[in-house]
Structure formats: C-alpha cells, structure tokens
Amino acid sequence: MARRRLSRTLKRLREDRRYTINQVQRAMEWSTSKVVRIESGAVGITVNDLRVLLAYYGLHDDETVEALLHLSRASKRHHWAAQYRPVLPAAYIDFLGYEMEATLGSYWEPLFIPTLLQTEEYAEVLIKATAAQHLPMPEVEARVRLNNERQRRVLTPERAGATRIIIDESALVRCVGDEDVMRRQFAHLDVMIERTRAEIVVAPLAVGAHLGLDSSFSILEHAASDDPDMVHRHGGPQDALEVEDPRVVQQHKETFDGLASAAIRGDNVRRLLVRPGQ
Fold it and tell me: Pfam families recorded for this chain (predicted)?
C-alpha cells in the first residue's frame, strides 16, 4: 500500500508541474521505463533517488518530503505473504498485501468454494486440478499453508465483520474431490456461517447472467481518500488483475450488491449444505 500511495503522489507531482516522462528521464538520467514503472508502482524508488527527484520537482517542504521518504522506506518492508513469492504470481501477493489494508472486503466466487472458506483438503484438490502444469507437492503444500494463514488473518473477530462473501450456488453442486471431501467442506462452511462475523451468503442460480459470471472478483474498499477502492478480477484460484478505474470498481460494486440482495441466507444456506447420504 505504501508503494501505491507513493507512486500516485509522484505521478501527480510530475503532472502538476506539466513535466513529461521524457523530461524527468533526462533530468534524472534514468531510462523511460524506470520512470513509468515507478509511477505505476511496479517498482519502488530508493530514498536517495527520491530526494533528488523531489528536489527536481521543487518540493522543499520538510514535513511533506519526510512523509514521502517514510513511504519509500515503508514500501521496502515485506508483508506477511512475501515469503510465498517463489510459488505464486506477484499480482496475487500484492493483492494479499492490499487486502490487509482494506476497511471492507467483498468477495464473489462463481465456480468454487472461496479460498477464505476452504478446508485444507478441498484447497489441495483444487490447486492440483487447476494448475496449468504439474506442481511439485512442496509447492502445493505451500499454497495450502498460505490459504490457511490468509484465513486466520482476514477472518479474525476484529476484521471478519468487514468481510462479505457471496458463493454461487453452482459451486455447492460441483464436486471437488470425493464425497467425503465435500461433506467435510460443507460441515466447515456450516461452522463458519454460525461462528464467524463475516457475511456468508449464496447467490441462487435463478439470478441469471451478470458481470461476475466468468470470473471471481474481490472489491477492496479503503477509508482513506488517497487510497482508492479497487477491484481484483481473479483469473484462477490464485491469480489477480488489479483495477482502480472508478467506473469499473462501481460496476463491480453494483453487481455485488445486486447479488447480495437476491442471495440465500442463514438457515436456507444450511439446507443447501446437506450432501447425499447425510
């Protein structure tokens, strides 16, 4: 989150001064791609480089400069999921960092039980089945551990009340693993609905076609005005495409709210969690 705040601020400073990227590139003796990547948040900027850049922009207010230097230092700190970078896409790791900064998280999943609600064995089967190529077992186990850690962090009593999860009814029909895996997964879902403060509901098949039918998405909302709300569209169980465009974010909010208003709740959800033979 610190890197995103800093990159947006630096882009705004450049644009306010009507400097082009090429002018900054020449003045700083950087490559054009370096300026672009800093302003997009793809890479960070060192404290020394930042001091020189701010001086070039004519920013000399000590308090403002120190605040931006603090963001540069903070952006170098690794968040809790950084250790999993060798086995997961960078976009998904970044998403997990943004998630912990959000004041409200809204999650939609049309195909599977959402990651935040999966049992270990359900997650293992799903990770193996959806991988584009064979994954070594240590990598599968690392991804399952990450799922568990994420659940513990997001669904704490303090944070769970700011978490909304909608599961498509088709995800409850699709068998992932064998019937024993599904029975235990449904039992876990039942416990989560009963005990957690998160809002967990099911969108019925009758809602028809909508914006989220082709992929899952997560909406992360922030209280701070300089941290825009964002939507992450997930191309797979552990991948993410970040979008901050206000129009796109609003479209997804409206889709989520529409699904929530039509959702199955409470005891009616529990009735859907009875597997054959139970």
Answer: DUF5753, HTH_31
Q: What is the pLDDT of residues 31-76, one digit of tens each?
A: 999 999 898 887 888 889 999 999 999 999 999 999 888 878 877 6
Residue 248 and residue 232 in contact, taking contact as beta carbons nearer than 8 Å: no
pLDDT of residue 125 exceeding 90: yes
User: Residue length, the chain?
Assistant: 278
Query: What CATH number has the domain bearing residue 121?
Result: 3.30.870
Q: What is the DSSP string of 176-206?
A: -S-HHHHHHHHHHHHHHHHH-SSEEEEE-GG
Supply the range of the domain harboring residue 61: 2-75
- Say whether 219 sits in a helix, a strand or coil: strand
Pairing of strands 104-109, 216-221: antiparallel
Indicate if 113 and 229 belong to the same structural domain.
yes
Residue 252 CA to its chain's centroid (Å):
14
Cα separation, 195 vs 14, whole angstroms: 50
Residue 265 CB contacts under 8 Å (≥ 6 apart), including other chains:
201, 202
Would you say residue 278 lies in a domain? no
Give the count of domains, the chain: 2
Task: Tell me whether residue 277 is in a domain.
Answer: no
Q: Backbone phi, then psi, for 154, in 5-degree steps?
A: -80, -35
Residue after which a domain boundary falls, among 75, 90, 124: 75
